[in-house]
Protein 1
Amino acid sequence: MIFCSVPKITFEKGMRIMEECKIKNLYNLEETIAKELLEKSTYPWEVLPDIGAYILELGETLDKDEYEKVGENVWIAKTAKVAPTAYINGPAIIGKEAEVRHCAFIRGNAIVGEGAVVGNSTELKNVILFNKVQVPHYNYVGDSILGYKAHMGAGSITSNVKSDKQLVVIKNGKEMIETNRKKVGAMLGDHVEVGCGSVLNPGTIIGRNTNIYPLSSVRGVVPENSIYKNKNEIVEKQDR
């Protein structure tokens, strides 16, 4: 299997943002069947081109007592609940106790973690959903990775292509990381909460345990353990 090379870092202050965006600082890899794929890379967007191939390789090794191969390259756990109106295109893996609801549209290259919820009219494409992720109501998630127990409120989406069709760059003020990819959605750390109706612009990185206010337009890097109210007001969570 071929993995992407480490992206070019620009500006001298890139080291701090590089740390914030690393897989090890965003995710608990014990909470995904994609652990082996992710632990071979530094940044989450590096694995996006390899999700499909990884599913094809992993799917053939899944315990046949626990998973059933349905159609072409779709593996569904026998304990998962999949609505008859849902559409799942392979390659895809639907984990144990996951729920795929009415009219969900899974376009392929998708890993849905154990206990995850893919809701009514939600669309997935080239994604990894860690265990217990919830995208339950009218969400679009493309070219993105959502950490353990991340939740996207109704109508919130990931935008994965810039309007000018240029390559996506991860930005945090003057600090930048070039992804060398045209399509990069959002990387949500563990326990991230995204409010209803929000748009996560291409290359958005949200640190662990962070909350995004409803109706937000988010871009760049949002620190862990924070509350995003708007681009000019991001506050650190206080202990209660």
Protein 2
Amino acid sequence: MNWYLQTTKNGDVVKSTRIRFLRNLSEFKFNLNSKEDIEKLENKIKDNLYSIGYGLKFLKLKDMDDITKRSLVEKNLITPEFSLKRSETGSILINEDENICIMIGGKDHLNIQIFSAGLDLENTLNLAIELDEKIGYSLGYAVSKKYGYLTSSINNIGTALKASVIVYLPALTKTRNTRKIFDAINSFGMNIKASNSDNNQNYIYEISNKQTLGITEKEIVKNLKVITETVMEQERQARKLLTKDEIELEDEIFRSYGVLTNARKISYDEAVSLLSNVKLGVDLGILDDLTDLQVQKLYLYIKPANLQKYLGQTYERLDRDIKRAEVIKQIINEK
């Protein structure tokens, strides 16, 4: 089962872990823009693909349809910027489980990403280092003895590692305690941002490291884990506060569940907002009609592109809203 559908013991708060290494090859200049230079980079990678291993497949973005590209963006496997700006020249290496995805030909030559469900920083880092060393041995990285790995941005040199966890914080958001948490996280040299800065009705946030220079990979991961575990504790305490107003909380959860199960058409924004309340109900044991796996499936397949991939057909917006309501009922009724 792909990592984004897996459930974990800490999945009530932590959705996923990602380790990312930015790497550049020593024989190529930075910020490749010409089609010829990017093709040379791709050819070198393809020539060494077998020796790298991990079941990685080479795919060109220009050979993908728009829905497939958007589905990769929705799974956070590639960035919206990479999908848009490199639609003709960009490519990826990806394995069948989709827990490894390497973007090729962006601002840096390689954006190596390893994903896992829940809070699993150490194991994800170990796999990332193992893969990174194999690629570096085969391709040859641009490295400075003084500064470490060289990148297109001075902000990323050193380890060039970005470790991040995606967390689900409905109680802290509902009790309006996120600002205090944000300030504390920033004071410890970490970033936290909402997944939707305009109207974060899915209560999902990303915590990641700021520092990449003068610190080791293991120190970055250790610090991030400490911060994340503190946030998990704060979120669970806030949930206990919410449950004190039992009727109000249960009313919101069951109303959300009622709309999801009975709507004839529903937009993505409304669906994800309602689903976030339903997930809280499942996590607190208030709503026992759904499993964690069903919740994970709903989060994935209500997204526009992945909805269409799930159904194997393209739809206009209104038809998508109708089909989304049908798919939600289908997943909810799974036994």
Protein 3
Amino acid sequence: MKTINEAQDEIIDEFSVFDDWMDKYSLIIDMGKNLAPLDPALKTPQNRIEGCQSNVWLDAQYNDGIITFTADSDAILVKGIVSLLVNLLSGRTPDEILNADLYFIQQIGLNEHLSPTRSNGLLAMVKQMKMYALAFKAKAQ
């Protein structure tokens, strides 16, 4: 499996093909369409990410030292953003997630091209994924 940084570099390469942000938004939306559906039973208040304008649900499972994330959103762009994070961080150890510097967000300009509420939502998603990693790491010790 690629390292988080190798996977981030691939994302940056994929986005560097486009100059126009409308094309980049389309790419993000397409990524969301490829996100595996979240079991409706997991769309609970406990799995809902606070700080997102849209509904975003994130579930994390921990098996054999690896965290697997699943997620969904009722907003197509947000679903694409969460799919980027799920694809990047799912299948990793808690330490890999906790030590990850998610530089791709700045590199592709995502932080500059989201509304303030969407940007806060993105930060809330990253924070929640790192909180899961911290909790699983603590439980494993």
